[in-house]
């Protein structure tokens, strides 16, 4: 039986002052441990985009979105590990004082960065996501 691509909400959280929130993937992460990445998660059956983003931001960063803006869609095909998903990309404003690691099994550090001073290494999919998700 052929597989279908997964559908995920991908979100770049920002503080409205030019900084973006990135999380370093922990050793137990599904892929690319040690890489810095934005947040993401599967859209569950029956959820609106806003509900999925709110749930995922709250789970991953223990913060409630202050604004959610749809920025675009990516069709992500990867060879290593073999995967295919549709990424619905959002720019999300959060209060930096409220942000905490909500899922330590996925992330072991959080940081605020300017787009011109990003940490290394970056997750392989992050540059294409950032190109779509620039906050306004």
Q: Could you explain how this protein is built, in words?
A:
With 136 residues, the protein is α+β, with helices and mostly antiparallel strands. 15% of the residues lie in helices and 39% in strands. It contains two helices and seven strands. Strands 1, 2, 3, 4, 5, 6 and 7 form a seven-stranded mixed beta sheet that branches. The longest helix is centred in the middle third of the chain and has 13 residues, at 49-61. It is globular. The mean pLDDT is 93.
Keywords:
seven-stranded mixed beta sheet; 136 residues; alpha+beta; 15% helix; single chain; globular
Summarize the structure.
The chain has helices at residues 49-61, 126-133, and strands at 6-14, 20-25, 36-37, 39-42, 67-79, 82-93, 107-113.
Tell how many strands the DSSP assignment holds: 7
Largest sheet: 7 strands, mixed
Tally of helical segments: 2
H/E element string?
A: EEEEHEEEH
Q: pLDDT under 50 segments (min length 5)? A: none
**Overall form:** globular
Share of β-strand residues: 35-45%
**SS class:** alpha+beta
End-to-end Cα distance, whole Å, is: 43 Å
Helix content: 10-25%
Indicate the radius of gyration in whole angstroms: 14 Å
* Oligomerization status of the protein chains: single chain
Instruction: Calculate the mean pLDDT score and round it.
Output: 93
